[in-house]
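Predict the holo structure. Ligand: fe (ii) ion.
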Amino acid sequence: MSLALCALSHTPVMGVHQPADEVVARVEAALDDARAFVADVDPDLVVVFAPDHYNGFLYDLMPSFCIGAQATAIGDYGTSAGPLPVDRAAARSLASAVLDAGVDVAFSERMTVDHGCAQPLDLLFGGIDTVPVVPVFINCVAEPLGPVSRVRLLGEAVGRAAAALDRRVLLLGSGGLSHDPPVPRLTEAPPEVVERLISGRNPTPEERAARQDRVFDAALAYAAGTSDLMPLNPEWDRRFLEVLGGGDLAQLDSWSNESFVQEAGHSSHEVRTWIAVHAALGAMGPYEVRSTFYEAIPEWIAGFGVTTAETRGR
Ligand SMILES: O=C(O)/C=C/c1cccc(O)c1O
Ligand SMILES: [Fe+2]
């Protein structure tokens, strides 16, 4: 049995509107390090913790957490589309163990995932279908959100259950650090957008293209400094990464949901996926960070990070 961790930011703007060449080169180098780490781990199962952006999980029924036993990627923003090779037995076993541990995770035989799940698999494995996976959805955008302490408990329960599988498991977390892209919010959106957040599954190709273009336009304005989107917060990002690296994740329990939004933007809640993977790895003993990268990249509307870690002494 072994557990290892890779956490990275996703952003749909990557490859569309690029930052300066040297920034792209530094990100590529960090991803190369992560790919080498993952190749060395040689996982036979990837448990991927990912948010969703109103593609698979909408307000008709919004769980805090959900484990998928069958899942399909929609292929938004040029990411891979199609069925994920989900290990159904492993998914069932993880879900049972997490429920036994007192964390009320939902369970899906028809999960839909978006770029939040597909992009890290594309970047690290060259596709979504190369290694068996178990997708774990964490609600990071649809308020109201539970406290981050619950995410830590979810991660710990998944970590203990994954260790009991006697497999080489990569715990993969996908989410931006500080960022506040133009993702609509139920309490502020106009009625037609509210309806989309509740029941807007399967938009037409034209509707999807319009939505994606809005994000690309917002990224261009953000990079040009002509946007009123909230600035990235590299100080907050570094403080957060330091806590994760130190291993005492319970410190984060006192970070209120409001403080995430005020200091680092609404979508900074995507760091819930980072908390979950670190808690999962930490559940089996102290860990060591093997590589870490951080850069604030306005062109991608992302505090962009890549971290790898494994159990100490491995
Ligand atoms: O359009 C969406 O659904 C999300 C866009 C986005 C933009 C920047 C960073 C992210 O993490 C995103 O999901
Ligand atoms: Fe996102």
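Residues 33 and 291 are 7 Å apart (CA to CA). Residues 10, 51, 53, 116, 176, 267, 270 surround fe (ii) ion (ligand 2) (CB under 6 Å).
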